[in-house]
Amino acid sequence: MILAHVSAVVDEIAILRCRVKNKGNRTVSWMRKRDLHILTTNIYTYTGDQRFSVIHPPGSEDWDLKIDYAQPRDSGVYECQLTTTFKTLKLRSGFTTQSRLEQKFLDLRKFM
């Protein structure tokens, strides 16, 4: 089940949103589903691809995944996970990229 879908233009920034209320001492992670790679845990990044990072302003409930210079290979399903003692809660986001030309076409379609 995908709860959110994000589109981004190739070579631009993409942000996948995740809001966690009452996090307490639990862990928030972002995982890429295609290879089950844990990208971030809390504020730490666990991938060699430096385009990925988490945006978490201190004191906020936001734990957003930021992808710099989004590429077509980044398309897929990502999960924001909240790990508790007994289970993991998951929020899935679908993500696709498109070229600038595709974006301009989609923008024009809004006015048709």
TrEMBL record:
- Which intervals hold domain Ig-like? 1-90
Cross-referenced SUPFAM superfamilies, in alphabetical order? Immunoglobulin
Q: Which Gene3D superfamilies match?
A: Immunoglobulins
Q: Which domain of life is it from?
A: Eukaryota
User: Pfam families per the record?
Assistant: V-set
Supply the SMART domains for this chain: IG (SM00409)
Q: Which PANTHER family does the entry link to?
A: DEFECTIVE PROBOSCIS EXTENSION RESPONSE 7, ISOFORM F, DEFECTIVE PROBOSCIS EXTENSION RESPONSE DPR -RELATED
Which named protein is this? IP15667p
Task: Give the organism, scientific name.
Answer: Drosophila melanogaster (Fruit fly)
The encoding gene is dpr7-RC
